[in-house]
Backbone:
């Protein structure tokens, strides 16, 4: 029987475990185990055929001790309040571990975006903004693109908010298109940051990156740019990627023994991350089962899709050849599976450290919006490389000093920074 995972319970268990290690006060625990604010809205949308449909939408603001809430906005048919709660909590830790002055937030709308026309998406996004706009803002809560949303949709959100507030406010969202307040380098930032973390881990493990192999779950934005940067920056080989096939309602793994070409695969991938099986097969790709990525004999395993993908039911499929598990997705490993990974001695780069490149670059975008002065891509990438390297090494040094698992060390760094801010502000 497949393990059923509640992501919020998983996030709380991870927090509770480290809270015990840090001997946190009960009042501090009570504050941080749950979000500070939660919103559930019902969004009416007039569809193209004239029918009125109602969609459920969520926004959760976990903690803003370090700064305004920050986190993506998803359009996902399987979205739940608990998923959004968990992701908002992880965003708090992610911003803290990256040492940027932002807190944790997350949003979601329960909808399959592939069933909507462009105009229906715009109306749904703008109506979501209208219901909650007073609780968003550059100094309050700043959304960004996430699963099922994109830069154009952030531009619509920014435009709607600006009209409602009566002033042009580009900083209300990040991940906007370049030319409309967006930052150069933002599109590849999360994947770029994942590869910086892998590079730093290889240094600590005395591994030469050239010729190292990787298996990646997913082929959305994060997986695509992780693959590109792993090949181009580290001179590694990506053996496979996977994707969800919305037509067959299942997932597939696309494998090539001598390494995939991410640029080619991107050419035959639609806007929702589905790779064309026929065109891939014609170019010599083997189309395997959706879980084949997990059992590949590679050096680096990169879950870059959804939460709860590595469980106690499948964790034993991970090859003994794997040296690094780089969690590019949010919460891809359940707590039970995590214990097994820890016992087996795999080196793990925990999610909210590994994928912090996106929110770090979003912070850069906010800074540029405030200054009304924009940086070159080289400058953005240089600052991002430095931030991610420092973040990785702060966690690694904590793990070494306290003799703890990397995930625990990342939580220690993050929680201590948040609690310090809460105490200085007189909250606890």
Residues:
């Amino acid at each position: 029987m497949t393990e059923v995972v509640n992501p919020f319970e998983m996030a709380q268990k991870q927090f509770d475990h480290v809270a015990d290690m840090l001997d946190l006060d009960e009042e501090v625990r009570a504050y941080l185990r749950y979000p500070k604010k939660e919103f559930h809205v019902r969004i009416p949308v007039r569809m193209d055929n004239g029918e009125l449909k109602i969609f459920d939408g969520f926004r959760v603001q976990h903690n803003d001790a370090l700064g305004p809430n920050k986190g993506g906005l998803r359009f996902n048919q399987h979205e739940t309040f608990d998923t959004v709660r968990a992701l908002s909590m992880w965003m708090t830790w992610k911003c803290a571990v990256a040492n940027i002055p932002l807190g944790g937030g997350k949003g979601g709308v329960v909808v399959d975006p592939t069933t909507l026309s462009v105009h229906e998406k715009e109306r749904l996004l703008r109506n979501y903004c209208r219901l909650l706009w007073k609780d968003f803002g550059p100094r309050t809560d700043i959304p960004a693109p996430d699963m099922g949303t994109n830069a154009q949709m952030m531009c619509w959100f920014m435009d709607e908010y600006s009209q409602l507030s009566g002033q042009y406010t580009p900083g209300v969202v990040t991940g906007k298109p370049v030319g409309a307040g967006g930052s150069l380098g933002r599109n590849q930032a999360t994947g770029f940051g994942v590869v910086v973390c892998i590079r730093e881990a290889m240094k600590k493990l005395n591994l030469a990156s050239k010729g190292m192999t990787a298996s990646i779950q997913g082929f959305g934005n994060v997986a695509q740019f992780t693959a590109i940067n792993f090949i181009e920056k580290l001179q590694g080989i990506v053996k496979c990627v996977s994707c969800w096939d919305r037509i067959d309602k299942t997932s597939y793994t696309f494998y090539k023994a001598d390494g995939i070409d991410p640029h080619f695969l991107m050419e035959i991938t639609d806007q929702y991350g589905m790779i064309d099986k026929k065109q891939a097969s014609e170019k010599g790709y083997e189309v395997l089962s959706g879980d084949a990525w997990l059992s590949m004999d590679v050096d680096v395993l990169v879950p870059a899709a959804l939460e709860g993908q590595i469980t106690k039911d499948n964790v034993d499929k991970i090859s003994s050849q794997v040296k690094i598990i780089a969690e590019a997705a949010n919460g891809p490993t359940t707590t039970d599976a995590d214990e097994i990974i820890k016992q087996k001695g795999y080196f793990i780069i925990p999610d909210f450290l590994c994928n912090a490149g996106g929110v770090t670059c979003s912070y850069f975008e906010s800074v540029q919006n405030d200054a009304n002065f924009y940086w070159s891509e080289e400058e953005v990438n240089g600052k991002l490389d430095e931030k991610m390297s420092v973040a990785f090494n702060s966690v690694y040094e904590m793990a070494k000093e306290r003799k703890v698992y990397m995930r625990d060390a990342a939580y220690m760094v993050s929680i201590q920074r948040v609690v310090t801010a809460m105490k200085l502000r007189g909250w606890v």
Remarks:
- The chain has a mean pLDDT of 96.
